[in-house]
Amino acid sequence: MLTRPEQLLLALIGEAAIGYPAWLLAVIGHPVVWIGAAITVLERRWNAGIALRRRVMGLALLVLVAGGVGAIGWLIENWARNSLAEVLVIAVTATGLAQRSLDDHVGAVARPLLRGDLAEARAAVARIVGRDTAGLDEHGIAVAATESLAESFCDGIVAPAFWFLVAGLPGLLICKAVNTADSMIGHRDSRYLHFGWAAACTDDLVNFIPARISGVLVCLVGSGGWRTMLHDARHHASPNGGWPEAAMAGVLGRRLGGPVSYDGEPAHRAWLGDGPAPSTPDLRRALWVYRRACLLMWAMAGAIAWLL
Q: What is the CA 94 to chain-centroid distance, rounded?
């Protein structure tokens, strides 16, 4: 029986090499999509009434969805008592990691930018960020993609890996459920302010340690990140998002953050880092920083496996 660090290392390498096969996505979809579908159905049925009821039902949704996937993870782990079944644990773990997917999505922004095709680059970045993208120039697109890369390194890779090491497959799946719920309903608009409070608060807790680990990993594979991360991370609106983003800004020597708009409404955000806004070459550099940080995480998982 492999240890958790060994399982994690194999899942990380397998996901980076293969990703989630397109044919499998077409046939059965993706576990995160299944979680999202369940959240959508429950939100439509339960998100109504006075503020207190919305808060209670939002908490009930989170407990039901996260508890359900956690139970599935527990059943899979307890069934996996032979080498063949253990492959299933590693395969399911790999679906909760997004190294290749994140690289592909950000690469899809960088490539048209290199060709000077701003329209295609805007369309690509719109798939990975929630801000308005129609009026973004080269620098605005590079900023959006770089921030998404840094934040998603935590949410999509470090956090699920961390919780797998802590609590096995149930921990990873619960982490993914909480993160998905936060991205779907953890907003501060009139529809989700009360219903999504439990998802937003729980996501902050789940990502608290992973966000800081993510920032440290980025700093370790580059130079100049420590000062910016320690000085600017706390200025971010999120208690967690600023750590990997400020670290990336420092390593690149560029400035992230600043004003954006969502659905036509301006949003004022703190600046992270010094220097000019990133351009296309800086987005390419950010991808290489991200890849090195992933490799460092592999090395850390391997070291933990060796020590155990």
A: 14
Dist CA 198 CA 221 (whole Å): 35
- Structural domain including 101 reads 4-307
Q: What is the pLDDT of residues 148-176, one digit of tens each?
A: 999 999 999 999 999 999 999 999 999 99
| Tokens 């440290």, located at residue | 216
**Closest to 2 in 3D by CA, of 169, 213, 173, 171:** 169
* Residue 26: predicted pLDDT: 82
Q: Residue 186 belongs to what H/E stretch? A: none
Residue 267 pairs in a beta bridge with 260
Mean pLDDT of the chain: 94
d(CA 275, CA 282): 12
Say how far apart CA 250 and CA 34 lie, in whole Å.
37
Angstrom distance (rounded) from CA 5 to CA 154 = 18
With CA atoms as reference, report the closest residue to 43 among 175, 157, 187, 219: 187
pLDDT tens readout for residues 21-45: 888 878 888 999 999 999 999 999 9
pLDDT tier at 81, thresholds 50, 70, 90: low
**pLDDT surpasses 80 at 83:** no
Q: How far apart are CA 32 and CA 100, in angstroms?
A: 15
Count how many domains the chain has. Answer: 1
Give the other-Cβ count within 10 Å of 239's Cβ: 14
> How many other CB atoms are there within 10 angstroms of residue 285's CB atom?
19
| Alpha carbon distance 67, 74 (integer Å) | 10
Distance from C-alpha of 87 to C-alpha of 84, rounded to nearest angstrom: 5
